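Subject: sequence -> structure tokens, single chain

Hey, anyone have a minute? Need the predicted structure for the following. Not urgent.
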Amino acid sequence: MFKIDSQQNRIAPLEAKRFGELGFTERKHLQEWLENCPQALAQGEGEELLIIQKEFDGFDDTRERLDLLALDKEGNLVIIENKLDDTGRDVVWQALKYASYCANLSKQQVVDIYQRYLNQKAQESGQPAASAVDNLIEFLDVDGLEAAQINRIKTQRLIFVAARYRKEVTNTVLWLSQFGIACQCFKVTPFQAGDELFLSCEQIIPTPESSEFMIGMVAKEAEEKSADTEQKQRHTLRLAFWEQALEAFGQSACSLYNNISPSKDHWLSAGSGMRAMPYNLIFGKNEVRVEFSLQRSEAEVNTYVFDQLSAQKEAIEASFGHALSWSPLPNKKACRIQYAKAVDGYDKANWLEMIQWLVDHMTKLENALQEPLKGINQRLKQEAFA
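Reply:
Had a minute. Here:
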């Protein structure tokens, strides 16, 4: 840090000091400064903190005290732990304990804690005590306290203030941040220039440049967790559907799926008698489908079989009873012949009708393709494709 001499158009370095050598103490000085100037810890745009208690000891079955307790504009409790020239090794553990104690505080308990703080301040100054409710309504910018969301689950924040941070502290803080725990580290340094003293208060974790990135990473992780949950729910749903579907197929004239097990996938395959050309049942959110899939690794074989079936399209569709969807999928290895029905697939009330539709139409598809496929398979063997 430098001091500007505008008259001489020069800058002069300020001398960095340790709090101890200046006679400053944690409670009498650093804590007092931050209590009366919490904006020193409000680095972000629009950030504002309201101190609601000092040396809070209102924890059951413990005599421990946290240095400062605050609220942010979102109604989140902020645990502020101050250390002077060195954080020590246990500061993160202390703050986590305090956060866990505070996590159970109800809105009314927070109001009462703040009111006691205001009463104490009034007693010290000889002035009437302000209303905690009125102050909170104004600070949180709500119509009434009943509309305020205060100390919601998993919203507690941690702020550490110290002149020097041990590596085990910064590593732990960064690790906690990956789990969505809001942690900030502020480095405070006293400077001296003659008889004048200055204080630098700089947020070092997360750095201003990385804050947005970390917020994005937390949001991305939440999105991935949501997607994982959705995927697991879909897997469970599909497994239940296929169990019912296979039971129905087992009682039908279609024997394709007699030896097939239920799956968590959205499709279920059964052999057609031709290698890598299965009959597929498709269970989707918006449709169910029966199909014959041509997916040999040799694209020319798929095209050959597809063309041979296409030449018999009219007879196949007449046997099936409906116009089929023919997908040659040019420039791709796989081809498909399919028939679909739009449904609300994830509504279990529709499952009986959907399963019966699959049984009926897979039976028809197998019957329509059975003879054509026999002839094509013979020709494939003769032409050395198989």
